Amino acid sequence: MPKLRTVAVVAGTALLVRRAMRRRIRTSPLWPMPALEEPISGRPRSRALRVLVAARKEVAEGVVQLRLEGHDLPRWEPGAHLDLVLPSGLVRQYSLCGDPEDASSYTVATRLVPDGRGGSREVHEQVREGMELEVRGPRNRFPLVGAGRYVFVAGGIGITPVLPMLRALPDGVEWRLLYCGRDRASMPFLEEVEKLGADRVTVAEGVPDLDALLADVPEEAAVYCCGPEGLMAAVQERFPRVLLERFTPRISTGGAFEVELRRSGRTLTVPADSTVLAAVRAELPNTAYSCEQGFCGTCQQRVLAGEVDHRDELLTDAERGDSMLICVSRARGDRLVLDM
C-alpha cells in the first residue's frame, strides 16, 4: 500500500509539472529563456541555403547574371523567385531564369539601379565568383497557369521570370511575347528570346505603342506582365485580369493613423509619408525586418484589431486575416492594434 501511495504521488506531481511547463511555454515561446520585454514576432519564411557563386557575367548593359551552385537545391517552377542575402545582410528578390530541372544550380540576373536602395549596386560591385552566399526559397507568386493562349509583356529585366515560362510552354499552344527595352543593348537574353520564334516575338525599343502592339489579344488569353511600374500599370489598364510580377513595393503613403502596440503598452502615430515599420522601430529598435518591400515576410506581425490595407506581395488570404507586413501595409481606418 505505501508503494502504491508513493507511485500515485509521483505520478500526480509529474502531471502537475507537465501542466505548469505547458503554461510556461505558452507564456514565453523562448522558454527556458526569459520572455522579451519588447516581443518580436517577425521571422523569415523559409530556411536558408548556402550556395557558391560559380559564374558571373554581364548579359546586357548594366545587367549581371549569377549562377549559384549547391547540393540538392529545392525544385522550382517557372515564375519563381529567390531571396538573395547579400554580404551586407541586405535581402533582395530575383526571378529564377535558369533550368527548373537543374537541382545543382540557380540562375538569377540583376540590373544596376544607380539611384536605388543599394542592393543592385552591391551585387554588381561586391559579389564575385568563388563567394558563398545565403539564399532562401524559392517561392512562386507568379505561376504559369493553364491556358490555351498566352500573351507575355516583358520590360527589360522583367524578361527573367518570363523566359522559363516560354521554355516550358507545351508544343502547339499559342503564345506571343512583346519584349520592350530602352535599346537592344540593354535587353538581357535578347538573342535567346528571338530564337524562340520571329513570328511570336515582337521587340520594341523605346516607349512601346501598346494599343497597336496589343490590339488583337484574344479575350480568353492569359496575359502576363513583368517590368517597370509604368509598363505594368499601362498593361493592367488595358487588361485588368493581367498577372503581374513586381519587385518594387507599392507606394506606401496614405493618411496618418495610430498603431497601438498592445504588449508593449505604447501608442504610435504613423505619418502619411512614413511606414508602420519606421514608427515601430523608433520605439522598438530590435524589431525584425529585412527587405522593406513586402516580399520576404520577416516583419510579419499579428493584428489584434483594425482593418489593414494590405500592400505586400507575399501573404496568403488566410494570413491576411490576422497579420500584416508592417514595412508596406497600412491601416484602412485611423487605428491598428498589433500584438507587439
- Please identify the structural class as seen in this structure: alpha/beta
Cα radius of gyration in angstroms:
25 Å
- What form results from the Cα inertia axes? globular
The share of residues in extended strands comes to 25-35%
Number of strands: 18
Q: How would you spell out the order of helices and strands?
A: HEEEEEHEEHEHEHEHEEEHEEHEEE
* Mean pLDDT level: 85
Number of helices: 8
* Main sheet makeup: 6 strands, antiparallel
DSSP helix fraction: 10-25%
Question: What features would you describe in this structure?
Answer:
With 340 residues, the protein is an alpha/beta fold. The protein has 8 helices and 18 strands. The protein has helices spanning 2-27, 119-126, 159-168, 190-194, 210-213, 229-238, 276-283, 317-320; strands at 48-60, 63-69, 81-85, 91-95, 105-111, 132-139, 149-155, 174-181, 201-205, 222-226, 243-245, 257-261, 266-270, 300-305, 308-309, 323-325, 330-331, 335-338. Strands 4-3-6-1-2-5 form a 6-stranded antiparallel beta sheet, covered by helices on one side. A 5-stranded parallel beta sheet has the order 9-8-7-10-11, sandwiched between helices. Strands 13-12-18-14-16 form a 5-stranded mixed beta sheet, covered by helices on one side. A hairpin with a 5-residue loop joins strand 3 (81-85) and strand 4. The longest helix has 26 residues, at 2-27. It starts with a helix and ends with a strand. The model is unreliable at 20-41 (pLDDT under 50).
